[in-house]
Amino acid sequence: MFELFKLLWDVVVLRDAARKGQLMNWRAWVYGFGFALIEYGIALPAVMLYEKHPQYKPVFIAAMVLVVVNFICMMWWAWRWRARQSAP
What pLDDT, in 10s, does the model give residues 22-52? Predict the structure, then answer.
């Protein structure tokens, strides 16, 4: 229940930042939610498989490496996007 409250509070804070023009437009929302879905879509099944079948440890490790690489690429892309948006 507390997690739901935190999510709602995050939406309020993000809407306030968007009103102040701090880069939260509809495209940033779509990319953020899509990124979170991809990360959960890769990591959660790998964790659940590893819990029930520990012999699939290489699959789990490969999935976690993919999640980390995806995270690094997304942060690099986001940094470039923000730098281009703020350039004169």
Answer: 656 777 778 889 999 999 999 999 999 999 9
Q: Which of 22, 26, 20, 13 is nearest to 85 (CA)?
A: 22
Cα(43)–Cα(40) distance, rounded to whole angstroms?
5
CA angle 73, 44, 80 (to 5 degrees): 15
pTM metric for this prediction: 0.70
Q: How far apart are CA 32 and CA 29, in angstroms?
A: 5
CA distance 49 to 1: 27
Contacts of 32 (CB under 8 A, 6+ apart): none
